[in-house]
């Protein structure tokens, strides 16, 4: 390497270190997560450094993890050291990353992609039929003795898509992992918890959880504490609700069923009429109505423009966005539906939610009535 090339390499890497160093955050003694925002300048410096390295010496590889300011650093659980059940120390919290766990049932309405019951985990990720699925352990389990039996249990966050459960696992003296119980879950009917960020011990018996009323930057944070009462986990401290949350609503849909579709020359036409009511205490500032049809259709009528529909659009799913709806108010939506395939025996599903400008969904007090199904005779 020439002196000029050596000086260039030194300058480039010095610039890179100045850019990256402020963003490096340790994730504990066991591991570290490096979170760096993908700035254009960083990419340019890294790219130049790599190009020079390829020309004058061995290749240099750099990797960055995306900055997630609203989540716990997701440090994967390493495979546990090989040990027999008989040699397991019952005073140590169980290693969950490579175990078969009894996962409590997910809240009603969550599809089968989030399995419950006996689920095998490998490297902190859930498996089904030998394949990894979207469910995983969210960060490192927290060891705490929840029942003062002299053994540490493991408090784990289990994530599956937008849904999260906080579950406590124990280990028997012979090494078997058992489920003590669930502390809480998001998106439960009647609950205002829609997001879980962090789980921390508060001495023996007590765990505190950082919860939010919605995912994303608009969320309110609350620390709520939970304790084992001998039968189940109950809330023992902290706020019990997000009372006064300005974004909380209670939307309810109603639609006549079935939807009559008349056949004329290989084309089926009809009208879908839906009434949306805001039964909640606050104004819904941004309405999102999703239409899912059993066959591809074209939309027309007064509300089709809000769905991005054109004269040539054919789709089975439309997302329609409308202006605000005040508390106690109702609005009727109407779409003309045209299909070139018979819709006979098919169903149409309509779902409404109060959405933010960034695409998140705000809390709904009773989400069960946010969806209606319309049959086609």
Gist?
This protein has 377 residues and is mainly beta.
Distance between the termini: 78 Å
User: Could you report the average pLDDT, rounded to the nearest whole number?
Assistant: 77
Helix content: under 10%
Outline the biggest β-sheet: 8 strands, antiparallel
Q: Please, how many helices? A: 2
Total number of β-strand segments? Answer: 22
Categorize the overall geometry: elongated
Description:
With 377 residues, the chain is mainly beta. It folds into 3 domains: 3-56, no CATH class; 85-237, no CATH class; 251-375, Immunoglobulin-like, CATH 2.60.40.1530. Helix content is 9%, strand content 39%. The protein has 2 helices and 22 strands. It has helices at residues 3-20, 40-56, and strands at 24-26, 32-34, 100-103, 117-122, 125-128, 131-137, 142-144, 153-160, 163-171, 177-185, 195-201, 206-212, 221-228, 233-237, 251-254, 261-264, 267-278, 287-300, 315-322, 330-339, 347-354, 371-375. The strands form 4 sheets. Strands 3, 4, 5, 6, 7, 8, 9 and 10 form an 8-stranded antiparallel β-sheet that branches. Strands 15, 16, 17, 18, 19, 20, 21 and 22 form an 8-stranded antiparallel β-sheet that branches. Strands 11-12-13-14 form a 4-stranded antiparallel β-sheet, with no helix packed on it. The chain is elongated. The termini are far apart. The chain crosses the membrane at residues 44-65. Residues 71-98, 339-377 are annotated as: Disordered. Residues 77-95 have a biased composition (Low complexity).
